[in-house]
Amino acid sequence: MSGPNGMLYGGDEIGALVFDPGHHSLRVGYAQEDTPKADIPAVVGVGPATHIPEPEEKVPDGNVTQSGKVIRSPSEHHPALFTEAVWTTRPAREKLAELLFEKYQAPAFFLVKSAVLAAFANGKSTALVVDAGASQTSAVPVIDGYALVNAAVRSPIGGDHLAAQAKHMLSNMHIQMLPIYSIQSKEVIRERERGRYTLKTLPAGLTHSWQQYMLKRQYEDFCHCVAQISESQYEERQAASVPFTHYEFPGGYHQDFGPERFKLTDMRGGGRLRRGRAACAVGLRRGLRRPGQHPGLAGALAKDLAARAPSSHRLKTTAAPNPTERRFAAWIGGSILASIGSFQQMWISSQEYDEGGKGQLERKCP
Ligand SMILES: Nc1ncnc2c1ncn2[C@@H]1O[C@H](COP(=O)(O)OP(=O)(O)OP(=O)(O)O)[C@@H](O)[C@H]1O
Ligand SMILES: [Mg+2]
Fold this sequence. Notes:
The protein has twelve helices and 16 strands. By secondary structure, the protein is of the alpha+beta class. Residues 51-71 are annotated as: Disordered.
Protein backbone atom coordinates (compact mmCIF):
# COMPACT_ATOMS: atom_id res chain seq x y z
CA MET A 1 0.00 0.00 0.00
CA SER A 2 1.36 3.42 -0.83
CA GLY A 3 1.50 6.14 1.74
CA PRO A 4 2.22 9.81 1.12
CA ASN A 5 5.99 9.48 1.44
CA GLY A 6 6.69 5.89 0.74
CA MET A 7 5.01 2.53 1.00
CA LEU A 8 3.72 0.46 3.84
CA TYR A 9 5.59 -2.70 4.46
CA GLY A 10 4.75 -4.78 7.52
CA GLY A 11 2.84 -1.76 8.82
CA ASP A 12 5.81 0.62 8.60
CA GLU A 13 6.28 3.29 6.04
CA ILE A 14 9.59 2.77 4.31
CA GLY A 15 11.18 3.63 1.00
CA ALA A 16 12.23 0.82 -1.30
CA LEU A 17 15.55 1.18 -3.08
CA VAL A 18 15.98 0.43 -6.76
CA PHE A 19 19.32 -0.81 -8.11
CA ASP A 20 20.15 -1.11 -11.80
CA PRO A 21 23.66 -2.55 -12.07
CA GLY A 22 25.55 -2.40 -15.37
CA HIS A 23 29.08 -2.76 -16.68
CA HIS A 24 29.40 0.98 -17.06
CA SER A 25 27.61 2.14 -13.95
CA LEU A 26 25.26 1.27 -11.14
CA ARG A 27 22.12 3.35 -10.94
CA VAL A 28 20.65 3.56 -7.45
CA GLY A 29 17.88 5.56 -5.83
CA TYR A 30 14.54 5.57 -4.09
CA ALA A 31 11.42 4.07 -5.62
CA GLN A 32 8.84 6.66 -6.67
CA GLU A 33 11.50 9.20 -7.63
CA ASP A 34 11.92 10.24 -11.26
CA THR A 35 15.65 9.64 -11.57
CA PRO A 36 18.23 7.67 -9.62
CA LYS A 37 20.00 9.40 -6.74
CA ALA A 38 23.33 8.37 -8.18
CA ASP A 39 24.95 6.88 -11.25
CA ILE A 40 28.07 5.29 -9.83
CA PRO A 41 30.86 4.20 -12.19
CA ALA A 42 31.26 0.42 -12.15
CA VAL A 43 35.01 0.29 -11.89
CA VAL A 44 37.29 -1.77 -9.77
CA GLY A 45 40.72 -0.32 -9.29
CA VAL A 46 42.98 1.53 -6.96
CA GLY A 47 42.46 5.28 -6.70
CA PRO A 48 45.34 7.76 -6.55
CA ALA A 49 47.09 8.14 -3.24
CA THR A 50 46.56 11.90 -3.38
CA HIS A 51 43.16 13.35 -4.06
CA ILE A 52 42.91 14.90 -7.52
CA PRO A 53 40.04 17.39 -7.43
CA GLU A 54 37.46 16.85 -10.12
CA PRO A 55 34.50 19.02 -11.00
CA GLU A 56 31.35 17.50 -9.52
CA GLU A 57 29.56 15.36 -12.01
CA LYS A 58 25.91 16.15 -12.46
CA VAL A 59 23.18 13.92 -13.75
CA PRO A 60 20.89 16.07 -15.86
CA ASP A 61 18.14 16.56 -13.31
CA GLY A 62 20.58 18.27 -10.98
CA ASN A 63 21.29 15.35 -8.66
CA VAL A 64 24.95 15.25 -7.87
CA THR A 65 26.73 11.94 -8.14
CA GLN A 66 29.09 11.45 -5.28
CA SER A 67 31.79 9.05 -4.58
CA GLY A 68 31.40 7.63 -1.12
CA LYS A 69 28.05 6.99 0.47
CA VAL A 70 25.02 8.00 -1.54
CA ILE A 71 22.18 6.49 0.43
CA ARG A 72 22.80 7.29 4.05
CA SER A 73 20.36 4.93 5.65
CA PRO A 74 20.68 1.45 7.15
CA SER A 75 20.11 -1.31 4.59
CA GLU A 76 17.79 -3.19 6.95
CA HIS A 77 15.19 -0.43 6.49
CA HIS A 78 14.83 -0.72 2.73
CA PRO A 79 13.36 -3.39 0.48
CA ALA A 80 15.70 -3.71 -2.50
CA LEU A 81 14.56 -4.15 -6.07
CA PHE A 82 17.32 -5.17 -8.51
CA THR A 83 17.22 -5.26 -12.28
CA GLU A 84 18.82 -8.22 -14.02
CA ALA A 85 19.64 -9.26 -17.57
CA VAL A 86 17.58 -12.10 -19.05
CA TRP A 87 20.66 -14.35 -19.12
CA THR A 88 21.66 -13.86 -15.49
CA THR A 89 22.54 -17.32 -14.23
CA ARG A 90 20.81 -19.01 -11.36
CA PRO A 91 23.91 -19.05 -9.12
CA ALA A 92 24.42 -15.31 -9.70
CA ARG A 93 20.81 -14.51 -8.76
CA GLU A 94 21.05 -16.70 -5.70
CA LYS A 95 24.30 -15.09 -4.63
CA LEU A 96 22.68 -11.66 -4.87
CA ALA A 97 19.70 -12.75 -2.78
CA GLU A 98 22.08 -14.24 -0.24
CA LEU A 99 24.07 -11.00 -0.04
CA LEU A 100 20.98 -8.84 0.36
CA PHE A 101 19.33 -10.97 3.02
CA GLU A 102 22.29 -12.38 4.89
CA LYS A 103 24.87 -9.63 4.70
CA TYR A 104 22.72 -6.51 4.33
CA GLN A 105 19.69 -7.76 6.28
CA ALA A 106 17.29 -6.33 3.70
CA PRO A 107 13.67 -6.66 4.83
CA ALA A 108 12.59 -7.65 1.30
CA PHE A 109 14.11 -8.27 -2.12
CA PHE A 110 12.95 -8.61 -5.71
CA LEU A 111 14.53 -9.18 -9.12
CA VAL A 112 13.04 -8.04 -12.42
CA LYS A 113 14.38 -8.31 -15.97
CA SER A 114 15.65 -4.94 -17.08
CA ALA A 115 13.94 -5.23 -20.48
CA VAL A 116 10.56 -5.60 -18.77
CA LEU A 117 11.25 -2.49 -16.71
CA ALA A 118 12.44 -0.47 -19.70
CA ALA A 119 9.18 -1.37 -21.44
CA PHE A 120 7.19 -0.29 -18.35
CA ALA A 121 9.04 3.01 -18.24
CA ASN A 122 7.83 3.59 -21.78
CA GLY A 123 4.26 2.71 -20.83
CA LYS A 124 4.27 -0.69 -22.56
CA SER A 125 3.90 -4.25 -21.37
CA THR A 126 4.57 -5.75 -24.83
CA ALA A 127 7.61 -4.59 -26.72
CA LEU A 128 10.90 -5.49 -28.30
CA VAL A 129 13.46 -3.76 -26.11
CA VAL A 130 16.73 -2.91 -27.77
CA ASP A 131 19.34 -1.92 -25.21
CA ALA A 132 22.72 -0.59 -26.27
CA GLY A 133 24.84 -0.69 -23.12
CA ALA A 134 28.56 -0.55 -22.42
CA SER A 135 29.45 -4.22 -22.74
CA GLN A 136 26.80 -5.36 -25.18
CA THR A 137 23.72 -4.62 -27.23
CA SER A 138 20.70 -6.79 -26.73
CA ALA A 139 17.22 -7.22 -28.13
CA VAL A 140 14.70 -8.77 -25.77
CA PRO A 141 11.06 -9.41 -26.65
CA VAL A 142 8.67 -8.70 -23.79
CA ILE A 143 5.11 -10.00 -23.98
CA ASP A 144 2.55 -8.95 -21.36
CA GLY A 145 5.26 -8.11 -18.86
CA TYR A 146 7.28 -11.33 -19.36
CA ALA A 147 10.63 -11.39 -21.11
CA LEU A 148 10.97 -14.18 -23.68
CA VAL A 149 14.32 -15.45 -22.53
CA ASN A 150 14.85 -17.94 -25.35
CA ALA A 151 14.15 -15.38 -28.06
CA ALA A 152 16.52 -12.76 -26.62
CA VAL A 153 19.71 -12.10 -28.56
CA ARG A 154 22.83 -10.12 -27.81
CA SER A 155 25.99 -8.97 -29.43
CA PRO A 156 29.15 -8.11 -27.52
CA ILE A 157 29.28 -4.74 -29.24
CA GLY A 158 28.52 -1.72 -27.12
CA GLY A 159 29.99 1.49 -25.80
CA ASP A 160 33.22 -0.14 -24.57
CA HIS A 161 33.93 -1.54 -28.00
CA LEU A 162 33.25 1.83 -29.52
CA ALA A 163 35.68 3.55 -27.11
CA ALA A 164 38.34 0.97 -28.04
CA GLN A 165 37.72 1.68 -31.73
CA ALA A 166 38.07 5.40 -31.10
CA LYS A 167 41.42 4.80 -29.44
CA HIS A 168 42.57 2.73 -32.40
CA MET A 169 41.34 5.27 -34.94
CA LEU A 170 42.94 8.26 -33.20
CA SER A 171 46.23 6.47 -32.86
CA ASN A 172 46.16 5.66 -36.59
CA MET A 173 45.52 9.35 -37.24
CA HIS A 174 48.48 10.20 -34.96
CA ILE A 175 46.24 12.23 -32.66
CA GLN A 176 47.42 12.08 -29.09
CA MET A 177 44.89 11.76 -26.28
CA LEU A 178 46.69 13.31 -23.33
CA PRO A 179 45.17 12.76 -19.91
CA ILE A 180 43.20 15.88 -19.05
CA TYR A 181 44.58 15.96 -15.48
CA SER A 182 48.13 16.22 -16.82
CA ILE A 183 47.63 19.55 -18.63
CA GLN A 184 48.67 22.70 -16.79
CA SER A 185 47.84 25.18 -19.55
CA LYS A 186 47.39 25.23 -23.32
CA GLU A 187 47.57 27.86 -26.03
CA VAL A 188 44.89 28.72 -28.53
CA ILE A 189 46.05 27.29 -31.84
CA ARG A 190 44.75 26.98 -35.38
CA GLU A 191 42.86 23.89 -36.54
CA ARG A 192 45.09 20.84 -37.06
CA GLU A 193 48.07 22.73 -35.71
CA ARG A 194 50.26 20.85 -33.26
CA GLY A 195 49.12 21.46 -29.67
CA ARG A 196 51.18 23.77 -27.46
CA TYR A 197 50.70 23.00 -23.80
CA THR A 198 52.56 22.77 -20.54
CA LEU A 199 52.31 19.68 -18.39
CA LYS A 200 51.58 19.62 -14.67
CA THR A 201 53.92 18.05 -12.19
CA LEU A 202 51.78 15.10 -11.23
CA PRO A 203 51.58 13.95 -7.66
CA ALA A 204 53.20 10.65 -6.87
CA GLY A 205 50.96 7.64 -6.38
CA LEU A 206 48.78 7.86 -9.48
CA THR A 207 47.78 4.26 -10.03
CA HIS A 208 47.66 2.55 -13.40
CA SER A 209 43.99 1.58 -12.98
CA TRP A 210 42.96 5.16 -12.20
CA GLN A 211 44.87 6.56 -15.18
CA GLN A 212 43.30 3.98 -17.50
CA TYR A 213 39.87 4.85 -16.14
CA MET A 214 40.39 8.58 -16.73
CA LEU A 215 41.62 7.97 -20.26
CA LYS A 216 38.70 5.70 -21.10
CA ARG A 217 36.32 8.44 -20.02
CA GLN A 218 38.01 10.77 -22.48
CA TYR A 219 37.62 8.31 -25.35
CA GLU A 220 33.98 7.91 -24.36
CA ASP A 221 33.52 11.66 -24.47
CA PHE A 222 35.04 11.71 -27.94
CA CYS A 223 32.58 9.00 -29.05
CA HIS A 224 29.60 10.80 -27.52
CA CYS A 225 30.49 13.99 -29.38
CA VAL A 226 31.68 12.60 -32.69
CA ALA A 227 30.26 9.14 -33.49
CA GLN A 228 27.33 8.97 -35.86
CA ILE A 229 25.50 5.86 -37.02
CA SER A 230 24.73 5.38 -40.67
CA GLU A 231 21.26 4.16 -41.66
CA SER A 232 22.84 1.70 -44.07
CA GLN A 233 26.15 -0.10 -44.43
CA TYR A 234 29.19 2.16 -44.50
CA GLU A 235 29.69 3.63 -47.91
CA GLU A 236 32.45 6.08 -48.79
CA ARG A 237 30.24 8.42 -50.83
CA GLN A 238 27.49 8.67 -48.24
CA ALA A 239 30.00 9.10 -45.44
CA ALA A 240 31.50 12.05 -47.25
CA SER A 241 28.20 13.91 -46.96
CA VAL A 242 27.90 13.70 -43.15
CA PRO A 243 28.03 17.14 -41.48
CA PHE A 244 31.37 17.85 -39.84
CA THR A 245 31.67 18.13 -36.12
CA HIS A 246 34.45 19.90 -34.31
CA TYR A 247 36.38 18.32 -31.43
CA GLU A 248 39.12 19.73 -29.26
CA PHE A 249 41.47 17.36 -27.43
CA PRO A 250 42.83 18.06 -23.95
CA GLY A 251 46.22 19.16 -25.31
CA GLY A 252 44.55 21.87 -27.39
CA TYR A 253 44.74 20.11 -30.77
CA HIS A 254 41.43 20.46 -32.59
CA GLN A 255 39.95 19.52 -35.92
CA ASP A 256 36.72 18.80 -37.78
CA PHE A 257 35.62 15.18 -38.08
CA GLY A 258 33.49 14.15 -41.06
CA PRO A 259 33.49 10.66 -42.63
CA GLU A 260 35.35 9.34 -39.58
CA ARG A 261 32.10 9.80 -37.67
CA PHE A 262 30.48 6.96 -39.64
CA LYS A 263 33.66 4.93 -39.87
CA LEU A 264 33.86 4.78 -36.11
CA THR A 265 30.48 3.14 -35.74
CA ASP A 266 30.70 0.98 -38.83
CA MET A 267 33.40 -1.06 -37.15
CA ARG A 268 30.70 -2.20 -34.78
CA GLY A 269 29.83 -5.07 -37.13
CA GLY A 270 26.32 -4.00 -37.97
CA GLY A 271 25.69 -7.37 -39.61
CA ARG A 272 25.70 -9.21 -36.32
CA LEU A 273 23.36 -6.72 -34.77
CA ARG A 274 21.08 -6.88 -37.75
CA ARG A 275 20.76 -10.67 -37.55
CA GLY A 276 19.91 -10.33 -33.88
CA ARG A 277 17.16 -7.91 -34.51
CA ALA A 278 15.65 -10.06 -37.22
CA ALA A 279 15.51 -13.05 -34.89
CA CYS A 280 13.65 -11.01 -32.33
CA ALA A 281 11.09 -9.57 -34.65
CA VAL A 282 9.36 -12.97 -34.81
CA GLY A 283 6.62 -13.23 -32.24
CA LEU A 284 6.30 -9.52 -31.81
CA ARG A 285 3.03 -7.78 -31.78
CA ARG A 286 4.26 -4.31 -31.31
CA GLY A 287 7.79 -3.02 -31.25
CA LEU A 288 9.53 -0.77 -28.84
CA ARG A 289 13.04 0.40 -29.26
CA ARG A 290 15.32 1.84 -26.72
CA PRO A 291 18.15 3.09 -28.88
CA GLY A 292 21.25 4.42 -27.24
CA GLN A 293 22.26 8.02 -27.40
CA HIS A 294 24.17 7.77 -30.63
CA PRO A 295 22.70 9.92 -33.35
CA GLY A 296 21.40 7.82 -36.20
CA LEU A 297 20.79 4.61 -34.23
CA ALA A 298 17.04 5.19 -34.06
CA GLY A 299 16.77 5.66 -37.81
CA ALA A 300 19.00 2.68 -38.60
CA LEU A 301 16.95 0.41 -36.34
CA ALA A 302 13.61 1.57 -37.69
CA LYS A 303 14.72 0.91 -41.24
CA ASP A 304 16.12 -2.51 -40.45
CA LEU A 305 13.16 -3.68 -38.44
CA ALA A 306 10.65 -2.52 -41.01
CA ALA A 307 12.54 -4.41 -43.72
CA ARG A 308 12.69 -7.64 -41.75
CA ALA A 309 9.41 -7.86 -39.86
CA PRO A 310 6.57 -9.73 -41.59
CA SER A 311 4.24 -7.28 -43.31
CA SER A 312 1.36 -8.44 -41.08
CA HIS A 313 3.16 -6.99 -38.05
CA ARG A 314 2.37 -3.44 -37.18
CA LEU A 315 5.54 -1.86 -35.88
CA LYS A 316 5.34 1.13 -33.64
CA THR A 317 8.61 2.50 -32.43
CA THR A 318 9.12 4.42 -29.21
CA ALA A 319 12.16 6.01 -27.69
CA ALA A 320 12.11 8.48 -24.83
CA PRO A 321 13.10 11.85 -26.32
CA ASN A 322 15.28 12.70 -23.37
CA PRO A 323 18.67 10.91 -23.13
CA THR A 324 18.38 10.70 -19.34
CA GLU A 325 15.09 8.85 -19.57
CA ARG A 326 16.67 6.53 -22.12
CA ARG A 327 19.75 5.72 -20.09
CA PHE A 328 17.76 5.26 -16.93
CA ALA A 329 14.80 3.47 -18.52
CA ALA A 330 15.23 0.22 -16.57
CA TRP A 331 15.78 2.11 -13.31
CA ILE A 332 12.71 4.29 -13.91
CA GLY A 333 10.64 1.17 -14.65
CA GLY A 334 11.85 -0.29 -11.35
CA SER A 335 10.99 2.91 -9.53
CA ILE A 336 7.45 2.78 -10.93
CA LEU A 337 6.97 -0.93 -10.22
CA ALA A 338 8.24 -0.77 -6.64
CA SER A 339 5.79 2.00 -5.85
CA ILE A 340 2.66 0.31 -7.19
CA GLY A 341 0.31 -0.76 -4.39
CA SER A 342 -0.45 -4.21 -5.84
CA PHE A 343 3.28 -4.94 -6.20
CA GLN A 344 3.84 -4.82 -2.44
CA GLN A 345 2.69 -8.43 -2.00
CA MET A 346 5.21 -9.60 -4.60
CA TRP A 347 8.37 -8.87 -2.58
CA ILE A 348 10.28 -11.82 -1.16
CA SER A 349 10.30 -10.94 2.52
CA SER A 350 13.21 -11.83 4.77
CA GLN A 351 10.83 -14.14 6.63
CA GLU A 352 9.96 -16.01 3.42
CA TYR A 353 13.65 -16.27 2.61
CA ASP A 354 14.42 -17.61 6.07
CA GLU A 355 11.70 -20.22 5.74
CA GLY A 356 11.94 -21.15 2.07
CA GLY A 357 15.57 -20.28 1.23
CA LYS A 358 16.79 -19.55 -2.26
CA GLY A 359 14.00 -21.60 -3.81
CA GLN A 360 11.83 -18.53 -3.26
CA LEU A 361 13.68 -16.80 -6.03
CA GLU A 362 12.57 -19.09 -8.85
CA ARG A 363 9.04 -19.10 -7.48
CA LYS A 364 8.55 -15.39 -6.94
CA CYS A 365 10.86 -13.85 -9.55
CA PRO A 366 10.66 -16.15 -12.60
N1 LIG B 1 25.50 10.78 -24.46
C1 LIG B 1 25.97 9.60 -24.83
N2 LIG B 1 26.20 9.33 -26.14
C2 LIG B 1 26.66 8.13 -26.51
N3 LIG B 1 26.95 7.13 -25.68
C3 LIG B 1 26.75 7.35 -24.38
C4 LIG B 1 26.26 8.57 -23.88
N4 LIG B 1 26.16 8.48 -22.53
C5 LIG B 1 26.60 7.25 -22.22
N5 LIG B 1 26.97 6.58 -23.32
C6 LIG B 1 27.56 5.24 -23.39
O1 LIG B 1 26.61 4.30 -22.98
C7 LIG B 1 27.25 3.25 -22.31
C8 LIG B 1 26.59 3.04 -20.98
O2 LIG B 1 25.27 2.62 -21.21
P1 LIG B 1 24.45 1.94 -20.06
O3 LIG B 1 24.43 2.81 -18.87
O4 LIG B 1 23.14 1.49 -20.64
O5 LIG B 1 25.40 0.66 -19.80
P2 LIG B 1 25.37 -0.35 -18.59
O6 LIG B 1 23.95 -0.77 -18.34
O7 LIG B 1 26.12 0.20 -17.42
O8 LIG B 1 26.24 -1.53 -19.19
P3 LIG B 1 25.79 -2.99 -19.68
O9 LIG B 1 24.35 -2.89 -20.13
O10 LIG B 1 26.73 -3.31 -20.78
O11 LIG B 1 25.98 -3.86 -18.48
C9 LIG B 1 28.72 3.64 -22.12
O12 LIG B 1 29.52 2.92 -23.03
C10 LIG B 1 28.71 5.12 -22.41
O13 LIG B 1 29.92 5.54 -22.99
MG1 LIG C 1 22.65 -2.19 -19.14
